[in-house]
Amino acid sequence: MKDTISQKECMTIVVPVYNRAKLIVRCLESLKAQTYRPLHIIVVDNASTDDTMANIERWMHSNADKDFSMDILSETNPGAAYARNLGLNHVATDKVMFFDSDDTMRPNCVKSIMELWRSYPDPDVIVWQVAIHHDGNVRITHSIKGCLIEQHLVHAILRTQGYAIKRDFIKKAGGWRGEFPVWNDLETGSRILLSNPKTKVLEGVYADVYHQRESITGENFSDKYGTWERSLDGIDESIRKSARNDRRRLHNVISYRRAILAAHYSKEGHPELAKPLYQQALSEVPKKKRPLIRFAYHWTKCGLRGAFSIIEKFL
């Protein structure tokens, strides 16, 4: 991968992993099943305490070859962001993807990405939809259209399984920030999109995301009280520092997200957590917008979805 041609033709996929001994091989098999070559896989173990490393090494010994090369790195700082940054610092190719160790990539994913880049060399980011599997149900993520930064703030379009990016662009955008242990892809994706990348949508579904009960985000929002808010504050600060003309509207979208989070706290039986966050959300938007925030809060508190699609024209 040291020569210019291979750097342009090869895709690097960075996979952070922590205690996924039973799932990491499924992920790696989906990468090996890609119909595109050459591929370079960087697996970053985040101080696993189970058999994850042994399973990775065993699989690598049996499957790595010159067109499907692998590196295994170790990151002791806890958190996927630190692991992804370590992997990013070892990427030698022009283009990189990040993927999660408990999910799977559909066989034509990388081939479709690289073919699109051959036809349209300019985009910094290529983005697509994924399928989310949860308790036997499958949901396709929101269609990708309109203002991407706004859609990302609401629907997390730049989730780790849903985009590929030019290496130099994500480095310039600041990479991954370890101080945000939850909604890290939301925060990172926001900084990427606030950096005004050239983007291209790859039509179709190219990855399968599987909800895990032992996920870092926990089973409910109250378990991680304070961390969600910190991520939203970080995104809001990035918006304030940006040169975009729509900063006011994007700030209102963050207030909407705060109201939705407050509604989840309330649904989970923690009104003491919900009240101050809800009041903050109301106080940070103009008075004429507050009925929209109230609607979104109560709509979500009642267990309903899709509040943003109702109010977005007026926010």
How would you characterize this protein structure?
With 315 residues, this protein is of the alpha/beta class. Helices cover 44% and strands 18% of the residues. The chain contains 13 helices and nine strands. Strands 1, 2, 3, 4, 5, 6, 7, 8 and 9 form a nine-stranded mixed sheet that branches. Helix 9 packs antiparallel against helix 10. The longest helix is centred in the C-terminal third of the chain and has 21 residues. It is globular, with a radius of gyration of 20 Å.
Architecture blueprint of SSEs:
Elements: H1 4-9, E1 11-17, H2 24-32, E2 39-45, H3 52-63, E3 68-74, H4 80-89, E4 95-98, E5 104-105, H5 109-119, E6 125-134, E7 137-140, H6 148-155, E8 163-166, H7 167-172, H8 184-194, E9 199-210, H9 227-241, H10 247-267, H11 271-283, H12 290-301, H13 307-311
Parallel strand pairs: 1-2, 1-4, 2-3, 6-9
Antiparallel strand pairs: 4-8, 5-9, 6-7, 6-8
Helix pairs in contact: 2-3, 6-8, 6-10, 8-9, 9-10, 10-11, 10-12, 11-12
Essential attributes:
9 strands; alpha/beta; globular
Instruction: Let me know the average pLDDT.
Output: 94
Largest sheet: 9 strands, mixed
The overall strand count is 9
Low-confidence blocks of residues? none
The helix/strand order is HEHEHEHEEHEEHEHHEHHHHH
